[in-house]
Amino acid sequence: MIGRLRALPARLVDNKSNDLLDLFALHLHCHAPIAAYSKGMKQRVLIAAALLHDPDLLIPDEPLSGIDVTSAGLFKHLLGELAAQGKMILYISHVLETVEKVCAHVVIIYKGEIRAADSVEHLRNLMQLPSLEEIFSQLAERRDLGQAARDIVAVMQSR
């Protein structure tokens, strides 16, 4: 269906689809209804569909949600390969540890407001903080999450 929407030749769609299903470890399940797929399998189908027409711009939104460790590793390497080929990737995620590993530049948005737009390395140096998660906490949340966690535990344990 995606190939037809992109007006790709049927033979090319068949070849690419079969290759991508195989490379994303989905070929054994290609005749099963998608409703029978796990969340991770559905994510891999969506990634394969997004790559089918060789886009210059890729916008994955929480692409690792529900994906197993091996598929996540493959996707991270794939992003590196695509970036090396000059593809533009706008990676959207709340998992800042992954963002830090796969992105060269970040835009930190909090409540609809851009709080920072720079390279991860420059933000680390500028703010003198070791991780993107800590940078986000300083720029966006501005509350002591450790204290909030202690307060939650205190409420749990109160009698």
Written overview of the protein:
By secondary structure, the chain is mainly alpha-helical. Helices cover 53% and strands 11% of the residues. It contains eight helices and four strands, in the order H-H-H-E-H-E-H-E-E-H-H-H. The chain has helices at 2-5, 10-23, 39-51, 69-84, 96-102, 120-127, 132-141, 145-157, and strands spanning 57-58, 88-89, 105-110, 113-119. It has a two-stranded parallel sheet. It has a two-stranded antiparallel sheet with strand order 3-4. Strand 1 (57-58), helix 4 and strand 2 (88-89) form a beta-alpha-beta unit.
Question: What descriptive keywords fit this protein?
Answer:
about 160 residues, mainly alpha, two-stranded parallel ribbon, two-stranded antiparallel sheet, 4 strands, about 10% strand, globular
Decide which structural class fits the backbone: mainly alpha
Strand order of the largest sheet: 1-2
**What is the CA-CA span between the terminal residues?**
58 Å
* SSE run: HHHEHEHEEHHH
Shape designation: globular
- Rounded mean pLDDT is 90
Strand content: 5-15%
Low-pLDDT segments: none
Profile the largest sheet. Answer: 2 strands, parallel
Number of helices: 8
The rounded Rg comes to: 20 Å
Number of E-type strands: 4
